[in-house]
Structures are given as C-alpha cells and as structure tokens.
Amino acid sequence: MPFRKVAIIGLGLLGGSIGLAVREHLPGVATTGYDADSEVRERARELDLAQTIADDPAEAVRGADLVVLCVPVGAMRGAAQAIAPGLSEDAIISDVGSSKQRVGKALAEELPGHHVIPAHPVAGTEQSGPDAGFASLFHQRWCIVTPPEDADAAKVAALVKFWKSLGSTVEVMDAAHHDMVLAVTSHIPHLIAYTIVGTASDLEEVTRSEVIKYSAGGFRDFTRIAASDPTMWRDVFLHNKDAVLEMMDRFQADLGSMRDAIEADDGEAMFDLFTRTRAIRRSILEQGQDDARPDFGRGHE
Amino acid sequence: MPFRKVAIIGLGLLGGSIGLAVREHLPGVATTGYDADSEVRERARELDLAQTIADDPAEAVRGADLVVLCVPVGAMRGAAQAIAPGLSEDAIISDVGSSKQRVGKALAEELPGHHVIPAHPVAGTEQSGPDAGFASLFHQRWCIVTPPEDADAAKVAALVKFWKSLGSTVEVMDAAHHDMVLAVTSHIPHLIAYTIVGTASDLEEVTRSEVIKYSAGGFRDFTRIAASDPTMWRDVFLHNKDAVLEMMDRFQADLGSMRDAIEADDGEAMFDLFTRTRAIRRSILEQGQDDARPDFGRGHE
C-alpha cells in the first residue's frame, strides 16, 4: 500500500465508511479524521471511525499522504482552504463528491502545486451522519477517478490501488463525462424521487395518510432516495447544473411521449417500452449491482 | 370463515400467492385454480398452488363461494365471460386488479345478478408468473375493497374477513377514490420508473454499460419496478387513464418548478423540498410499510 496515513475530512456516511473500511482492509495504514461539527467529532471518537480524531482540519491532515474530502460538494472549497496549512507537499488530495468538474476546479484553485485527484465512489445509502457508515459500503461498487490531464501517473495509480483495497472496482474517466453519466444514473433519479414524493404529499384529493398506507404499490421505493441528505443533494444539483438540466429535458420529453401514448390508448407503445426496460434490470442483476432477491430482499413480516 | 371453496382465476404472482396463503392461513378452505395458459396450469400443479387445477374456467368456479380474478385488468371482462357458465348464484366474484372503476363496470356488465365486489390487495413484487408467489405476500399490507353502492353488506363483510385472514389490513373505499389514490401511490411511480429506465438506455453520450455499472447511485432503485409485468401495466394505464393523466400533470408541473430552481441556482427551494420528503419516509417506516434497514436491507457482498 502506497499510503502510510490517510486523513478523512468529513465524518458522515462516506467518511465514516472509509475509516472503517481502511481499518478492515488496510490495518497497517494510520487514519485521522476531522469534522467541522464538534458533536460529529465526539460521536466519531465513540464509534472509533478513525484512529485519531483531530479538532483542527490542518492538524488532521498533517503527515497524511492521502487526504479524502468527504463533505458536500458545496463545502469542498472551504474544506480545501481549511486543510491547506497542514498539507504535506507530496500528499494526494482527493474527495468523494458526486459531481467532479466544479469540485476539481475548486480544489485546484485552492491548492495550487498540490496533487489534486478527484474521485467518486458510487455507493451510499439513504442514511447520513457518523452512525451510518459501515466497512463494506464499497464492496462490489464502482469508484470513478477523474484525474486532471497533468496528473502524476504514479499518484493516480496509488489512489486507484487505495480504492481497490477497499473493495471497489475502479474506472478512470474524464470529469465532464463523469458528470454526464452520473446525471442520468444518480442525479436525475434523486430529483425525480424528491419531486414525486413532494407531489404526493401536497395533494388535496389524496391525504398524506393514504399516500403512506398504500405506498407499497411502488411509491415507497422512491421515498428511500428522497430521504437522502438535503444539503448534499442541494449542492449536487447546484454543481452539476448543466448535465442535470440536459438529462432532465430528455426525461421530460420521454414522459411527454408516454403521456401521449396513454392519451391515445396506444397500448403497443407502452408494451414495447415496458418490455425493453426489463432487460436493463436483468443486466444490473447479472453484474451484481443490485440484490437479485425479489423486492430488493425486503422483509415481508 | 364464511367460505368453503375459493376459486382463483389466473395463477401468476397474485393468484399463486392467494392459493399459498389460503393453504397456510385457512387450511379448512378448499381451493381450485385455473389459468388460460396450459404451461402455467402445469407449473401450478407442480407447485401445488391450489388443491385442484382445472383445465376449464367454468369448471374451476363450480361450487366456489368466492371467485378471485387474478388476471391483468384488460383481461377481466373475458375472464368473467369464461367463468359465467359455472358460477353459483350465491358466489362472490372479486378480483385483485390495480384499477377499480372500469373493472367493476366490466364485471357487473358481464355477470348481472351476481355479487360482484372488486378488491385490490396493495402488494406485489417485480416478479411475475406462477413461480413468483409466496404465502406471506399480503402480510401487513393493505387491501382495498370497493363494493358497488348496492352491494350485500354480509357479502362485503365476508370478503373483508377473507383478506384479513390472509394477513392484510382492509379498507373499504369508493372505486373512484381508489383509482385516484393508486394513481399517485402506484401507477405514476411505475410510469416514471419505466420512462427513466427507457431514457437512460437510449442515450448516445452515456453507454448502456455505463448506466448499468453506475446504477447504484440511485438508478437501480427504479429498475426494480420497471421490470414489472408489461401486460399488467399496459392495462393499468389504459384502464386508469383519467386519474393517471391528472396526477402526471401535477408531477410534471412540480418537476418544472424544480427545473426552474436549478436553473436559478435556488438552493433554498431545493433544500426545503428535500427536507420535507424525509418526513414521508419516516412515516412509512413507522407504519411498517417498508423495511427500515438502510438501503431496503439489500445485501452488500
């Protein structure tokens, strides 16, 4: 392992999971953690999310050869400023943010001369905070690394190795392409889920109590990701605006076509789409990207 | 139990689960089954989904005091015609369809003088066919009974008792209201899921392979219900057209507002919505309508 000490800035679901995963998979690697919220730091100490929890961000990164920023993408610039005084010249500064172009730009601007290599482990749950983390979060999940063009190849390789050690499969990708891919596989699904849950809770004809009771008809699936961290997701949409708006326009156009099909009693158009979409599910299961048990393996008692 | 013999017409996920649930919860009640597909009948015999599997629909319902039609809503009228010759005068004819107004009308037209009491157990998985059923499908789930105005109160009570025996909680509701409620809690979520999975698989900038790889970012949640039975869902949209279109218009308007918020960098509007939607999730968990474990309790290995 090319790292002796990993510093984790932000100790929520992702940061905490990295701390636990390093302890499990890389027992020889030291960890330090920091969170801007003193209560989170206290809880992180109780949960032993990192070997040392520092009370100062610059102190946390001192001597670390890998620093992973695990804060909402809108807080990356501030986090970079806060750690700058303690950074080793040789350290890699990476992150786990869901949008990569603007984050990469902000980090490069705040930390000139440093090895900034953004990354995004595509993993998570709807939970947040220091109690939400677990060591196997990254197992069988993809991690996308988006190095700038002039990145040091050895540093990129070291970061790739780190994520593989935690159980991830790694893909190196251009940041702009990442932002387009994630807009469709993550950002638009979250936006749709938040929106339909909002629509359903604002209806006059259907009470909120009815929406909750009969949610097993499909609606409850959307409520899971609509329970994700509001700050994190607000920042994602603000930071990946262009790709999100582009993908949203495609989705809205397709939804309009389905509306036309329903209006015109065009059962064939519906049947065609509903048949095609089954194939995607099958591929996701074949590639181990979801639980193959019916209903996500949910309990039935 | 007010029934001695229950006939199940259609032996897919719902019909098969009813057969298994009756055997488990009502061991004194006889069951017969029928499916229009001879291969499904054969499989149903192997799986023992009902005590007797008849090769003729009228034969299947002979002597039954409860007949449950478990076919796609577009096939209800044909199923009613097929069972008519064998029906006892006193039998209740019910169903499990996801839309209730048109189904109720079709059954009443085809079976004049009979006790037609439509119902809808709000339960299911993305699987379909005779192998998909299981006895606990209805446990802790709601079943909505939508009797016509002139229904025999004792017959309604008997049907309610039947569903309670299988583990459901029962609500009696007007068919028109049912169709509005289910449009938002089930039909629109399915339509949205089918549509976004279609959008994602048709992109040129993002390959299908990328969509599959990075689906754990949220997209995979939608693929589950987008893998549901195409025939069943085509029929639902054709049969609950008005309510679906009305709810879709609300959703599209709300999505437009979110688009405006992103375009205007209005983080506050997003944060407000994303915070409100968490409360709905919490209520769904409190009322036992979803698995409270993070990520639906999905496996992480």
Provide a short characterization of the protein structure.
Two copies of one chain form a homodimer. Chain A contains twelve helices and nine strands. By secondary structure, the first copy, chain A, is α/β, with parallel strands linked by helices.
Tags for this model:
about 10% strand, alpha/beta, homodimer, 2 domains, 6-phosphogluconate dehydrogenase C-terminal fold, about 300 residues, globular, Rossmann fold, NAD (chains A, B)
Structural category of chain A is: alpha/beta
Radius of gyration of chain A: 21 Å
Number of strands of chain A: 9
How much of the sequence lies in strands of chain A comes to 5-15%
Helix content bin of chain A: 40-55%
CATH class label of the largest domain in chain A = Alpha Beta
Oligomeric state, counting identical vs distinct chains: homodimer
Low-confidence stretches of chain A: none
Q: What is the CATH architecture assignment of the largest domain in chain A?
A: 3-Layer(aba) Sandwich
N- to C-terminal distance of chain A? 45 Å
Bulk shape of chain A: globular
GO molecular function, one term (chains A, B): prephenate dehydrogenase (NADP+) activity
Catalytic activity (chains A, B): prephenate + NAD(+) = 3-(4-hydroxyphenyl)pyruvate + CO2 + NADH
Family (chains A, B): Belongs to the prephenate/arogenate dehydrogenase family.
Pathway (chains A, B): Amino-acid biosynthesis; L-tyrosine biosynthesis; (4-hydroxyphenyl)pyruvate from prephenate (NAD(+) route): step 1/1
